[in-house]
Design goal:
By secondary structure, the protein is mostly helical. Helix 1 packs antiparallel against helix 2 and helix 1 packs across helix 9. The chain starts with a helix and ends in a 5-residue tail after the last helix.
Length: 187
Amino acid sequence: MKKLGFLTIALSASVAVAAYAHNGATGIVKERMDAMSAMGNAVKAIAPMMRGEVAYDADAVRAASQSFIDHAGTAMTDLFPEGTGGMPSMATDTVWTDGEEFAELAARLGEYGEGLALASVNPPAMGATMTDMMGTDTMMGADTDAMMGAETAMDAIDFASMPVDAAFEMVSQTCSACHSKYRMESN
């Protein structure tokens, strides 16, 4: 799962940059940075399991899933009131100009977090393709626009029979889709 490795590295790098960006953040901007850090830490906690580098721990996956659930949907969108952009925030203006799409991705993250918790009982299928796991490769390499399409949306229950690493990839791709459109590039 090369894409899983790339997504994990990208999300981990985002956590490191976010930690640096927290300097000077206060109020709601700090709250949302802390929420993003919590989710980034959840990714870092379970990514090695998904790559087969450490033993699989379903309880750890469920704990990480809860972080996505807790910080998704309106819990996320409420952290982005109008007028809270600009430094030290990493949010692009697109959060507010495309608020409906942002809200859809935030809701999807919660649904996929719940799905990851359901899939936690299934062992990873290391090296399987998305087609092997789901019968489609719709999500592989998806960009933000593809992530927004109704045909790509899944319900949490759809994850129940999915290998846990495939469910984790879906969560990771949702994070990446959101970051690519609604988070400033960090150099």
